[in-house]
Design the sequence.
DNA sequence: CCTACCGATCGGTAGG
DNA sequence: CCTACCGATCGGTAGG
C-alpha cells in the first residue's frame, strides 16, 4: 500500500489537522505538507487558466512545483480533486473580499462600484487564477462536485444580490436585481478575455466605467 | 499515400470546388463530400461546446456522424482544423445576422435591442454551438490560427461599434462605445452559462432587459 | 471512407 | 515524496 497524506482521500475540511490530540502543537511536517498542497493548488490554477483542465497534465503541475509525475497524488486523490480545490479557493477568496466590501456599508451606488472593483481584482489581481478557472472549466467538473461548488457560489450570489436590492430600492436600477446581477457579473467576468494589466486602463477605471454604464450618473445624482 | 479529399490540407477557400473545369457540373461526389464535411463541423461544434476541445476526441466526432475513428482526417488535416472550421462558421453566421440587422436602419435604441436579440440567437438558437466554442475554447487555438480568426472577429466588432456610436451620438450611452461594446457583449456572452431555453424568460425578454439596463428608457424617452 | 496500426502520452498505482 | 510501471487512450497515418 502506498503511503498517503491523510487528507488526500477525505473531504478536506473533515480531517485536515483536526482529529489530532489538541494538546500537541501541529508538527512541522504537517505545515510543510500543507504548504506543498498549497503550492500544487496555485500551480494548478495558473496552468488550468492558461491551458484548460483537459489541456493540462498532472505532469505539468508536478513539474511546476518540482515534483515527480506521480507525487501530486500523495496530496490529492485525483486530478478532479485538484480542480475542486482551485475552484473552492477562488470562491473562498471572492466571498471574503465581497463580504469585506459589504461590511463598509457604503451608499448603494458606491457599494456597487466597490464590489465591481473587488471582483475585477479577483480576476486580474496578482495570483488570481482561481475564479477564471471556475468560469472556464466548469464543464470539466463531474456532477457531484458541481453540486458542492454550487453551494459555495450561491453564497457569493446572495452577497451581490443584497447590494443590488438596495440600488433597486433607491430607483437606481432599471431591471430586477437577479437579472441585473447576471448581466453585471457577466460583463465583469468577460474582462478575463480582453483586459490586460499594464494597458491603458486601471482596474479602478474599468470599474468606474462599468458602473457608469449600468447606473447612469444622472439618475444617481437626481435622487 | 492515403487518398485525401483535395481540400483537406489546403486553405479552405482556395481549392474548394473551384479550379475544376467550369463547363463540368459539380460532381455529386463533391456535393456529398461537402455534406459530410458539414456534418463533421456541426457534430464537432456540439461536442466541443459540451466537453471542450481538449475533452473531445476525434473518435467522439467520428462516432457522432457514423464514421470510423480515422475517417475525419479524410476531410480535415488535423483536429485543430476542425476547431477553426467551427469558429469560422460561428463568425460567418454571426456576421451575416448582424449585418442583416444593421441593414434595417432602425433607430439607435431599437437597433441595439435587435442586435442583442440576434446575438442571443447565435448563442441559444437551434444548432448554434459555434460562438460558444469560439468563446470557451479560444485558448486551445494555436497562435497562427488565432490571427486568422481575429481578422474575422474584427469585422464583427466593427458592425457593433457603428450601432453603439449612433447611440452615443444621441446621448443615450453613458460610456465610450468601445468599452460599452465589451461590457454588453460580455453580459450577453455570459448568458451561455445560465440561460436555458424553455425557462421563464424568452430570448426577446432577455434582450429587452439587457437594453433596459444599459440604456435606461427614461433617457431614451427624453431625447 | 475503412482497416489496421503506431508512437506518444495520459491518469493513476504498488511499493518503498 | 520518488521509482518504476501499467493499461487505456489519444491524434494521426499507410495503404487500399
Sequence:
Amino acid at each position: 500500500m502506498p503511503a498517503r497524506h491523510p487528507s488526500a482521500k477525505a473531504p478536506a475540511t473533515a480531517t485536515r489537522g483536526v482529529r489530532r490530540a489538541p494538546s500537541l502543537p501541529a508538527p512541522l511536517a504537517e505545515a510543510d505538507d500543507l504548504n506543498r498542497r498549497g503550492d500544487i493548488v496555485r500551480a494548478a490554477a495558473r496552468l488550468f487558466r492558461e491551458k484548460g483542465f483537459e489541456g493540462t497534465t498532472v505532469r505539468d503541475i508536478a513539474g511546476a512545483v518540482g515534483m515527480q509525475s506521480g507525487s501530486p497524488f500523495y496530496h490529492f486523490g485525483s486530478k478532479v480533486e485538484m480542480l475542486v480545490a482551485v475552484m473552492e479557493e477562488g470562491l473562498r477568496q471572492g466571498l471574503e473580499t465581497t463580504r469585506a466590501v459589504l461590511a463598509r456599508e457604503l451608499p448603494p451606488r458606491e457599494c456597487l462600484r466597490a464590489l465591481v472593483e473587488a471582483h475585477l481584482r479577483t480576476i486580474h489581481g496578482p495570483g488570481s487564477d482561481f475564479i477564471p478557472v471556475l468560469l472556464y472549466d466548469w464543464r470539466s467538473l463531474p456532477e457531484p462536485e458541481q453540486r458542492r461548488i454550487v453551494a459555495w457560489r450561491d453564497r457569493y450570489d446572495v452577497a451581490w444580490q443584497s447590494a443590488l436590492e438596495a440600488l433597486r430600492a433607491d430607483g437606481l436600477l432599471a431591471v430586477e436585481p437577479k437579472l441585473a446581477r447576471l448581466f453585471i457579473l457577466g460583463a465583469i467576468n468577460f474582462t478575463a478575455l480582453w483586459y490586460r494589466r499594464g494597458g491603458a486602463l486601471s482596474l479602478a477605471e474599468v470599474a468606474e466605467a462599468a458602473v457608469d454604464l449600468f447606473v447612469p450618473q444622472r439618475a444617481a445624482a437626481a435622487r
Summary: Residues 9-30 of chain A have pLDDT under 50 and may be disordered.
